[in-house]
Design brief:
By secondary structure, the protein is mostly beta strands. It has helices at residues 5-14, 25-28, 107-110, 186-191; strands at 18-20, 34-45, 65-69, 76-79, 84-94, 99-105, 114-115, 122-123, 128-137, 143-146, 150-158. It has a single domain (5-48, 62-162), classed as Distorted Sandwich (Deoxyuridine 5'-Triphosphate Nucleotidohydrolase, Chain A), CATH 2.70.40.
């Protein structure tokens, strides 16, 4: 079941769902979601001597990327047409063992060609950290994104029962407690 605005507000006020910084419900709370803001750290691929990404090759994906910081409130990042960048939300959140989250892009940005999540929109029960978004520009014009702008909406769904092994307790979790965008770690799976 998806939580309503009333339940989202109550769960955050009770501390069952933790969100930091504390949300401004007047501006961020929708009928069944909580808007999150764009952070100020981006990670993008830098020019490389490699013609393609080969996940079995002994190359650190992290080293193929560079981190870009913009001013915290209102700093600009220009996302070029066909561009791709990893970004984080300003807010960090923690989910209990019986609630999952789902992050969706805003329709207003989609109408400009901005894809907020290429694929990984689910946050498992037990998640803790900032959401990393896979931003893409499908449009034909560059789009300026500003840190602090509302970028996505987070919905919450209750599980039929608490998770037996929540995300943060799973040995194979890769991205828990992230505070900045992390490059893909899929190469470690492929090499195993």
């Amino acid at each position: 079941m998806i939580l309503s605005d009333r339940d989202i507000k109550a769960y955050i006020q009770e501390g069952k769902i933790e969100v930091f910084p504390r949300p401004d419900f007047e501006k961020q709370l929708g009928p069944c979601s909580l808007d999150l803001h764009l952070g100020n750290i981006f990670k993008t691929f830098k020019p490389s001597q490699y013609p393609y990404l080969d996940l079995k090759r002994d190359i650190s994906i992290e080293k193929l990327m560079e981190e870009v910081h913009v001013a915290e409130d209102g700093g600009a990042f220009i996302l070029q047409p066909k561009g791709f960048v990893l970004a984080v939300t300003r807010e960090a959140f923690t989910l209990p063992d019986d609630i999952m989250g789902r992050l969706d892009g805003r329709s207003s940005l989609g109408r400009l060609g901005i894809v907020v999540h290429s694929t990984a929109a689910r946050f498992d029960p037990g998640w803790k950290g900032k959401a990393v978004m896979e931003l893409g520009n499908l449009g034909i014009m560059p789009v300026v994104l500003y840190s602090g702008m509302r970028i996505a909406a987070l919905t919450f769904e209750t599980l039929s029962s608490p998770s037996e092994v929540p995300y943060g307790k799973k040995e194979s979790h890769k991205y828990s407690s992230q505070d900045s965008p992390q490059a893909s770690k899929i190469d470690k799976e492929i090499k195993e």
